[in-house]
Design goal:
Elements (H helix, E strand, L loop, with lengths): L9 E8 L5 E8 L2 H10 L3 E7 L13 H16 L4 H11 L3 H15 L4 H6 L7 H13 L2 H55 L8 H37 L1 H11 L5 H22 L4 H11 L3 H15 L4 H8 L4 H13 L2 H56 L1
Antiparallel strand pairs: 1-2, 1-3
Helix pairs in contact: 2-3, 2-7, 3-4, 6-7, 7-8, 7-10, 7-15, 8-9, 8-15, 10-11, 10-15, 11-12, 12-13, 13-14, 14-15
Length: 406
């Protein structure tokens, strides 16, 4: 529980004396000044001044993104493969990072290592950014003396998984944003523009078309009950958000429904298969036993339906069943992925075969995202045309009829 609050700790600026008596200064992150002083003493620094940095006048902190973590791991893999020592690599990467928050985190990892801890333990101090999978792989690399190789695999894994997440996010964000904008524009037209035409129609002294009357009635409702509409929309959004955060049953239902949505469901399905294969390949190449690897593999799929299935597969594998048989019995994996895993198990190259499966389905996600974008453009134009164009036609229809009567 204590680790989960790391990102909420304060920043302290300090000055002190090192083992040689030289005056040094810097900044550290911690819950209190006493904690920072203890950490400095562990590093052989005698603290002289430890002062909490003002949130008002201090530099504005930037958020640490998953992309930042992927770049950091790639930089470390490059530095280590070039023969640069671990602590010096962290110093170089930390001091030169564009994001101050990432720099502070890296320097915190460096301080942890200088205190006599392992690199994996240093990463474990920031569980929001380094999950169990990354920490376990780095730990395996340190213990086996192949840290450079494992860091390269971890960096590649992070880059691939982040790339596929961005593609899925792009596929979800674009249509959602356009539809929201369309409804906002429609609301503005109903609230501000339609009433102007309504005043004009009152001077006609003639019956209005049914379509126009319907739009005017909708406009009156929006003007009178706009607060109710906002409350319902906001309440629904908040309720769905809380259900997704608190209820595992709701998340499972949501993930199951999303997998059945045309095109979008295919993207989510194939991205889950790609994540499963990529994570399994990385873990197996690192020498992690298959049963132990299945838990982080399940979490990495990003879909509760797949997660539950993989956890059941883990129990079956632990009894001695082959992985490809458990995949067949789960009923959620495509035949191609199952057959490739079977070949990998028979030939002793499961990591390589899983990597090929991941490459294939990542390419499939690429194609599906491009297809979805091309399909959505005419659909979005149709939605905008019906909403906005319908309002325009409804407002000008009485004027057209009046012109015909004259």
């Amino acid at each position: 529980m204590a680790q989960a609050t790391t990102v909420k700790e304060a920043i302290f600026r300090w000055e002190g004396l090192d083992r040689k008596g030289n005056r040094v200064k810097g900044q550290s992150q911690g819950p209190s000044d006493n904690f920072v002083k203890q950490q400095l003493r562990k590093q052989g620094i005698v603290p002289v001044v430890v002062r909490k940095q003002s949130a008002l006048f201090g530099p504005r902190k930037k958020k640490i993104t998953a992309g930042d973590i992927a770049i950091f791991l790639r930089q470390m893999a490059t530095m280590m493969s070039a023969g640069v020592p671990l602590v010096q690599s962290l110093e170089i990467v930390g001091r030169g990072h564009e994001n101050p928050s990432v720099g502070e985190m890296i320097m915190g990892i460096k301080a942890h290592i200088e205190g006599g801890n392992s690199f994996a333990a240093g990463l474990g101090q920031f569980p929001l950014y380094f999950d169990d999978l990354v920490v376990n792989l780095v730990d395996a690399g340190e213990k086996s003396g192949t840290l450079e190789t494992l860091l390269d695999k971890v960096a590649t894994y992070k880059e691939k998984t982040e790339a596929i997440k961005k593609k899925v996010k792009k596929a979800l964000t674009y249509p959602t944003a356009v539809i929201i904008v369309a409804f906002i524009v429609t609301g503005i037209l109903l609230y501000f523009v339609v009433p102007q035409f309504q005043d004009l129609f009152q001077g006609f002294g003639a019956d209005l078309p049914a379509f126009t009357l319907m739009v005017i009635g909708l406009s009156k409702f929006v003007q009178a009950k706009w607060w109710l509409i906002l409350a319902v929309v906001g309440g629904t959004g908040f309720t769905l958000f809380e259900l997704n955060r608190r209820s595992a049953r709701f998340r499972k239902l949501k993930d199951r429904v999303l997998l059945k949505v045309p095109v979008m469901g295919d993207i989510l399905y194939k991205s889950a298969v790609a994540r499963y294969a990529r994570t399994l390949s990385t873990m197996f190449a690192a020498g992690v036993p298959l049963v132990e690897a299945m838990t982080p593999v399940a979490k990495a799929t990003g879909n509760i339906v797949f997660q539950d299935a993989v956890m059941i597969m883990r129990d079956q594998v632990s009894t001695g069943q082959q992985l490809q048989l458990t995949m067949q019995q789960s009923g959620i994996f495509p035949n191609m992925a199952t057959q490739m895993v079977a070949i990998g198990e028979e030939s002793g190259s499961l990591d390589a075969m899983c990597a090929k499966v991941a490459d294939f389905y990542e390419a499939e996600v690429d194609n599906l995202v491009d297809t979805l974008s091309s399909l959505l453009e005419p659909m979005i134009m149709s939605v905008l045309g019906v909403l906005v164009g319908g309002l325009v036609v409804a407002m000008y229809l009485p004027i057209f009829k009046l012109g015909q009567a004259i």
